[in-house]
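Researcher: Next sequence.
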Amino acid sequence: MGLKTAFWIFTGIIVYAYLGYTLLLVVLAFFQRSRSKAFEKQPFEPHLTLLIPAYNEAGSIEAKMENSMSLDYPKEKLNIIWVTDGSDDESLSVLSRYQNIDVHHLPERKGKIHAMNRGMKLVSTSFVVFTDANTMLNRNAIREMMKYFADARVGCVAGEKRIQDNNVEKAVEAGEGLYWRYESLIKKLESKNGSAVGAVGELFAIRTEIFEEVREDTILDDFAISLQIASRGYFIKYAPGAKGTETASVSVKEELKRKIRIACGGWQTLFRMPHLLNIFSYGFLSLKYLSHKVLRWTLVPLSFFMAFITNMLIVWGRPLLSDFYGYLLGLQILFYMAVIWGALFNNRRTRIKILFAPYYLFFMNYAIVAGMIRYLSGNYSVKWEKAKRS
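Model: Next structure:
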C-alpha cells in the first residue's frame, strides 16, 4: 500500500467519524421526518420514580431537591428515591429534612452501578428517571421525556446534557460545552433514524419492566443500561427538550480524569458487547454503534497520528507548500499549533470558544488512548472520585 493510499485511508476514518457520519444521519433523517413526529406530540403522564444515586453529595442535595420539587409534573405521580452509596458526609442529615422521599443508605461504598441496581429493586412505578445529584433539570424535563414512551417501541429516553454556559470561558469549559452541543446534534439525528446509541447518566429514563441488572464492575452504567435495552429491539429516543445542566470541570486535569474513565468504560463495553457489531442481527443500530462509538474508541486516535506521519513522508524533501499534499500538511501543522496554543493558554478566558476546539479534540483522543491502556492493564475501579466542577 502506497503512502498516499494510507494517508487517505487514515484521513477518511477521521472525516467519516466526525463529519461523514453526521451528514449521513442528516440525509436519512430528512426521509424520516413525518414518521418520527407521529408520537412525540402525545401527552403521557404515568407514575414514575426519580432515582438519584449519590455519594457524598451533601453540598448538592438542597439545590437538587428544590429543582426536583419545581418540575412541571403531577406531584402525586412523582416518587423520589435517593440511594446513598457509602456517603460519610452530611448527606443523610440533609436528606432527613425532606418528607415524601425515600432514602436508602448503605454504609459500605460499592460504586454507582451497585447503588443503581439496588435502587431499581425499590422502584414500584412503571417508569424510572435516573439523574445525578449535581444535575439540574429544566422545568419541563420529565414531561418532555415521558411523551416518547407513548410509543410502546421506546424503551429508553435520553435527555440532553448541557454544560452551564458562560460568555467568557476557559479551555475546558469552552471545549466541553462545544463537544456536548455536537454530541447532542448526533443523538438527535440518530433518534430521528430509529434509535440513539446510548444515554448519558446525568438524565435518562427507562421502562422499569425491561431493566436488566448490570454487572457491578461496569464503569459506564448509563451506556450499559441503555445499550442492553437497544439490543433487545427497543428504541432509545433523544429528548432535546429535557435538559440536564451541570457546570464544567474546574480544570483540564479534572476533565482529563473524567474522560479517561469514560474511555476506559468504552473499551470495557466494546469487549463485553461485541455482538452489537453484527449488522445482520442489529441492522442500522450496528452501523451507528460502529460509527459513533467504536471508531472513536479504536481507529480515530491512531488515524490522527498516522495521517500526520504519512503526510509528512509524502512531502519529505520538497518545499512545504509546493503542492496539494504540502498544503494539507500545512493545515495539519496549523491544527497542532492550535493544540499547543490551547495547552499553553488553557486557563485564559475568551469569548471566541472555537479557538479551543482543536485543543479539546486532541485532548479527547489522548484520553481515549490513556483509557485503553488503563482498561487493558486492569488498573481501574468501579468506584471513583468524581471530577471537581466549577
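Model: The longest helix spans residues 284-315. The mean pLDDT is 87.
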